Prior knowledge:
Helices cover 28% and strands 30% of the residues. By secondary structure, the chain is α+β, with helices and mostly antiparallel strands. It has a five-stranded antiparallel β-sheet, covered by helices on one side. Strands 3-4-11-10 form a four-stranded mixed β-sheet, with helices on one face. A two-stranded antiparallel ribbon has the order 1-2. Strand 7 (172-178) and strand 8 (186-193) form a beta hairpin. Helix 1 (14-21) runs antiparallel to helix 2 (26-47).
Amino acid sequence: xxxxxxxxxxxxxxxxxxxxxxxxxxxxxxxxxxxxxxxxxxxxxxxxxxxxxxxxxxxxxxxxxxxxxxxxxxxxxxxxxxxxxxxxxxxxxxxxxxxxxxxxxxxxxxxxxxxxxxxxxxxxxxxxxxxxxxxxxxxxxxxxxxxxxxxxxxxxxxxxxxxxxxxxxxxxxxxxxxxxxxxxxxxxxxxxxxxxxxxxxxxxxxxxxxxxxxxxxxxxxxxx
Length: 224
């Protein structure tokens, strides 16, 4: 459990403090404050600024981005007590990279087949049916799909069933197809944490150098 008392709310903006105050449960409020503190501290270390100086804008889907000229892009995911932050350097003059990260707690009570029928592509559902134990292939698929749509910045409005990913047990895979007009190449990196979490990072094909740094209370991914 990350304790809010271990972090300083003075680094947060007024809108973040207001958002934190609206959480019904203290546990959720503590995790939000801690997550924003850690995110601000990491970004500030790259920007050479103080954490309280880091400013965010939000797109129409609520995804935060750094204000001003983009020197870094980032994506954040958390599940239970695990926080994962992916950061990529935006090279001047080059096409803006896209990254998305997702971590999920391995819930053994999910009706895997029912959820897959509702959210996966027909091709993914067919592959999942071949597994006797569907838990791990389900979470590999789910995190890979979530990471991919988060990289597009549109959330579930992108459509979880319009593209397909691999369910195989492998550290790196590709997006197998996408029925939209997105033509860029993508790679997806997958891992497990503490035998309780699945994680996936989606990056466009121009980024293939990944540093995986485990800190005490988070996973930090540096993409370059």
